[in-house]
Amino acid sequence: MDSQKEALQRIISTLANKNDEIQNFIDTLNQTLKGVQENSSNILSELDEEFDSLYSILDEVKESMINSIKQEQARKSQELQSQLSQCNNALENSEELLEFATRSLDIKEAEEFSKAARQIKDRVTMASAFRLSLKPKVSDSMTHLMVDFSQERQMLQTLKFLPVPKAPEIDPVECLVADNAITVAWRMPEEDNKIDHFILEYRKTNFDGLPRVKDERCWDIIDNIKGNEYTLSGLRFDSKYMNFRVRACNKAVAGECSDPVTLETKALNFSLDSSSSHLNLRVEDTCVEWDPTGGKGQENKVKGKENKGRSGTPSPKRTSVGSRPPAVRGSRDRFTGESYTVLGDTAIESGQHYWEVKAQKDCKSYSVGVAYKTLGKFDQLGKTNTSWCIHVNNWLQNTFAAKHNNKVKALDVTVPERIGVFCDFDGGQLSFYDANSKQLLYSFKTKFTQPVLPGFMVWCGGLSLSTGMQVPSAVRTLQKSENGMTGSASSLNIVTQ
């Protein structure tokens, strides 16, 4: 019966996943159909605009050519009219002179005839008819303004749609996800020397497989990529996956997107649990700051055996639990007394995880580590067998130490600006690093028997966290070399139940 139920549950799960996959595909088809209709309308509009622009250019060229012909016609007409006027005047003068010469032949007196002959000779010498060019200044030819648009007609007849680059192919094998950076690599299905650049589009998602149409973030775009790969760095992995797709572009147009590829970007994301933090701590998401006014109005102090021996962290203003209001939410009591502690809101039950912590410059005292959920509300990190930490004290004297089960190991290294925390739950290892140089500060070797929570203690100062981080490659390498070499920490390594 039980085995049949399990089999049926698997079938139900498979069917539900398949239905979800089909529904996503239906959404994709509907969106694609809508896109076809919208894009077709846009393309038709753009085509009309292009042809209107072409018509406009042809009209402008035609008008310009007509003006050129009319100007040439006017110029030649003016030249010929001017020459014609000169010729008419010369002819009129010449005919008058001819008539005068003819009449002079009838003169009988020698002296008068001789006078007329001289006048005729002088007028002939000065006559414009003999100085006039009888060749037209311009011809009637207009062939220099003729046109032949046969080549242009051929070009127009060859008008066609732009050559669109083919969709690139993303190679998942060549893609790399490491150190909170993603390198995406692609190739063209065939060589295309007209490719000018590529466009990479990406978005975060919590769904594996094909990108979802509904309830997804918008695509972010990186344009003008010249090579066949691109690296996104400095990412915060606050989603399980990221979708990627690429488009190739020539000088004129962008091609279709490649088939999308989904890469896993899983990392530990957590915030600080303000519901159970000490009242003297002001907690906001990934920041915690000491607030000496947070416990005012609480007059009664806890006395007794359970509060003895917990003065490792100086406390000018100790808060009490006598009049403390109950926690509004959360599954545990608030930390109190001298345990200025706040835990993360996400338990670690398996796998390898990494986060970083940065302290304010004036922070007097703080601890960074992990603890079981059972850590008592009066317990300080590192003072019980249910918590592990490194502790920095800048009050009165400067100390840097690893702590577990009320045992202390002084660390002879400089306190870094940022501390990286590596937790290998299955391997039973908790290591601390200089987040910048990746120098190993200290390692605990143990066997975790319960889920652990990131833990933080702060007094007179503040801490800020960076989560959503992958285990850095340098840390993975160091872990391989450091495993089995943590004998210096043997006094603090213990299996806890």
Give the gist of this structure:
With 497 residues, the protein is an alpha+beta fold. It is built from four helices and 22 strands. The two termini are 36 Å apart.
General description of the model:
This protein has helices at residues 2-104, 110-126, 150-157, 473-482, and strands at 169-170, 176-178, 181-187, 197-205, 220-225, 229-232, 241-249, 254-257, 261-264, 281-284, 287-290, 341-343, 352-359, 365-372, 387-393, 399-404, 407-410, 418-424, 429-434, 440-445, 452-459, 462-469. The protein is α+β, with helices and mostly antiparallel strands. The protein has a seven-stranded antiparallel sheet, with no helix packed on it. The protein is built from four helices and 22 strands. α1 runs antiparallel to α2.
Q: Features of this protein?
A:
497 residues, alpha+beta, Immunoglobulin-like, Jelly Rolls, 3 domains, seven-stranded antiparallel sheet, six-stranded antiparallel sheet, elongated, B30.2/SPRY, coiled coil, E3_ligase_FN3/SPRY, Fibronectin type III and SPRY domain containing 1 like, SPRY_dom
